Every structure is written in C-alpha cells, then in structure tokens.
C-alpha cells in the first residue's frame, strides 16, 4: 500500500456516490475535491466538504496512517491549520491543529472495493514477468496520449538538467559563453572522459579562449597543456615540442595552474575517440567560430548546427593518433553521432535555460530539434521496444529514460497516465 493510491482515489473521484462518514461517525458530502498540489503543504487545496451540518472550505491532507501526522510534526506546522479533512488508510490516532482543535478523518479502507485493491496489487506484481509493472499493457495505451506523455517527460528531463546548468551559471556569474564551453568540453569527452573534460573546461577562463580564437595552434596548446598531455620529456616529436613550448608561454602569461584535475583516459577507447583528438577538434571549433553561443542559440535547423560543428582536428593528426607515432592518413573530423550527442546533452538543455531566462517560449523549437534526431540505442530503449513501444526520435528516447528512472523504478505508476488507465480500466 502506497500513499499515491489515496491520491488516485480522491483525485479521480472514486468515492462519488458513496455514503461517507468520518471515523467519528459524522456524515461527509464532498462538494469540491480541490486541486492536487505536489508542492510543500497539504495535498489538495481549496476543497469544499460538508461534515455533519457544517460546510467547510479548506485543504485536504493524506497519509497511510493518522499517526504519520505526528511523524511529520504537522501538529506544530501552521501550514496545516487549513486542513479540513485528514484522509488515511488506517485511522490509528486522533490529530489536532496547532490551536489544539481536532481534525476529522476519513478512513478509506472502509469504503474501497476489493476489485480496486486487487487491481492495484496486480499492477505492482507484474515486474516478475516484465522489467516494468505495466509491461503487459503499455502497448495498448492510446498512442496519441502516450506521445504527449513522452513530450512532457522529455521536458521533465530538461528541467533536471537545467538545475545543473543553473548552478554553473551562478558559479560563473551568468557567463553563458563560459558555461557553453564547459558543457561542450564535457560532451566532447563523452562517457569515459566527460568528467575529466568537464574539469578542464572549468580550469580555463573563457576570456583566454576568446583571445586565442584566431589561432588554432595556440588553442590546441592550451587545451593539451591543461589536460596534462604535454608533460612527457621522452617525446621528441616536433609538433609535440612546439605545443609544449607554446603552453609554457601561455601558462605563465595567463597564470594557469598545474593539472590538479582528472587526466583524460585512453583505455577502452577506439583511436578516433582518443582524448587528444577531441581536444584538437575543440580547438578547431573555437578557431572557426566567433560568437558560437549566439549562433547556437539562434540556430533554427539541425543543418545550421551541423555546419557549425563541421570541423577537423589539426592537420598533424591526419597522420597520427598519438604524439610521435605515424598512422594511416585520415582526416579526424567530428562525427555526426558526436554532434548529435552534443546537441542532446549540451545545446538543447542550454537553449532551454537561455530561453527561459529571457522569458521566451522555446518548447516548440526544442521539440522540433528533438524529433529530428534519431534515437540512441541502448538496452533500456530495446526493452521498451520489445514491449511494443515505438521510439522514433531522441525526444521519445529521452522521455522513455525519464519514465523509467523517475516513475517505473520508483513504482510511481499512479503518477503516470499508463498506470492510471490500467487501474481505471480494472476498477
């Protein structure tokens, strides 16, 4: 039994038509169920309930047990003085407001059908057969409604990412260019080196990038040096030595600290994903593009963004994967798959935050980008597809990730329209 069942019963008005009484025996007539709130304070606001001969207007609070009122110390919290009815599964204690006036209670277990309880229990027992509770029914849910739900979930995911971005903006005094640089660095590092690249991005003040953006060699020297890739005295390669010499000058000029962050790793990476190549590509990106932040925030199509990221690592890397070791000639361009990851993990979350800061409605343009990119493939998405769930875009995939992590895993089925539909259908 979970508290969300009580919310479900009340919110969907499953008590209508029943003769209700408080635990103390007074009649209850519900005039208005109120508005469900998921913020601090009572669960339902502005309800109207006739208890006995008195019509009350106020709020409704719900708990599994009446004694939970005291576990949360509501008897001393003035926010709960407005509660006119305490709805519980088991009324095991009398509760009072701060002025010591008693709050009437409705014990739901006296009024709920066994059919509803059996359906509720069955919903939460299905994980034995599927990786989610509704595995046997999710494909039957209305496709249009499910698509709208995935869109809402995608924006929930953006909201979560925006918390991280807002902290960065606060740390860097609302410097959007600096935050973009840090997010791009993290994305270029991908999963294995994301944290190391993130720390490198934080270690380099963006004004230095801006001053060097007409010189790709100096930018590469800066990034390689801060990453700790120019500290090996045994390498005698000319390009390496020139970078090392240039970084020695830059580190003094800009008072750059030594490498105290994580050093990027080469382990388990394919050569085209080596961190030194990624850093050279970042240098090429900022050499080719002035005002990158403005261009990205103003982009209206994927082609515009792809054009901005059409960059190639320094020509030295055409015949090298690591310093001093020749390899087959091949340009090291930023791949389409990497650009898509950058759009998903850096550009769209930052655009969401930026548009919100300007008071602009950006949902339509963000959705247009998100549905234009093919979904990433992973085991979780495959599991949903095996259940008959369509996943055609990044928005679908990100929505499914949010659904699984924030609802399915936490058994929040009654906060999901799929779970609600199953329980309504069977009760």
Automatic annotation (TrEMBL):
Matches recorded under Pfam families: DUF2851
InterPro entries recorded: DUF2851
Source domain of life: Bacteria
Protein's name according to its UniProt entry: DUF2851 family protein
Lineage: Bacteria, Pseudomonadati, Bacteroidota, Flavobacteriia, Flavobacteriales
